[in-house]
Amino acid sequence: MPPTSVIFPVHTSALNEQIAWLLHNGYHAISVQDILDAHYGLKSLPPKAFLLSFDDGYSSFYTRVWPLLKAWNVPALWAPVGSWVDTPAGQPVNFGGLMTPRERFATWEMVRGLSRSPLVEIGAHTWASHYGLPANPQGSREPAAANRGWDKTTGRYESDAQFIRRMTDDVQKVTAKIHEVAGKTPRAWVWPYGAASGSTLTIAKQQGYQLAFTLNDGLGNVKDLDNIPRLLIAGNPSLKAFASAVTQIQEADPVSGDACGSGLCL
Fold first, then answer.
1. Where are the transmembrane segments (predicted)?
2. pTM of the model
3. DSSP one-letter code for 64
4. Hey, what domains does the chain have and what are their CATH numbers?
5. Mind listing the pLDDT tens digit for each residue in 171-192?
6. Which of 40, 107, 170, 251 is the most buried (most CB within 10 A)?
């Protein structure tokens, strides 16, 4: 995925059909807590387990998705970008360089309400690192949470120490704010653009994060919570296309060995 911010809408009716298809075809909805319990040997995941995840912090999660979760009794992970939710009312959100109407994004009051639901796990999608930063003299842009920046003024790359300080400040800020609003420390770290960094992951773990979600292909495994892959559902696909994408992942990466240790994240 390119390091630019683009909204990938899925219609509410389509999401409803997708959840129905999953449940009617033998898939079992799980939560972040279920994954952690399986990781620590407290339980096994059901066959064909799946976790729904939603990024960025759109207000539509509160107004449209949450009612569906309650109707189907399906849990989900929701990971907002802190600075986008923190944007004052009436001001546009700097959506990775694209100025976007404030009402498209949730408020902290919405976050507080969602955090009280047993169906919603509040994760973190950085505080303000969901953008592409200049990463080389040629001007290429790469995900800010996973790459050292290039300063054309000084003609130098960001040092390791500078990168660690920048991302430590970011992780600490989003973690503290979510804890303040939700009353609990977030446990799930969701990489912008799916781009991971070992240095940032270490910082996140130090702040209490126990799972990290990418956009890599395949099924997740409870033995590896540092690199949980996800299937990106974008562009409002037909139900047939959705079913095909899910089935292909399941068939390409069948459960083996630990018979209840794998699951699909969408």
1. none
2. 0.93
3. I
4. 12-129+163-265 (3.20.20.370)
5. 999 999 999 999 999 999 999 9
6. 170
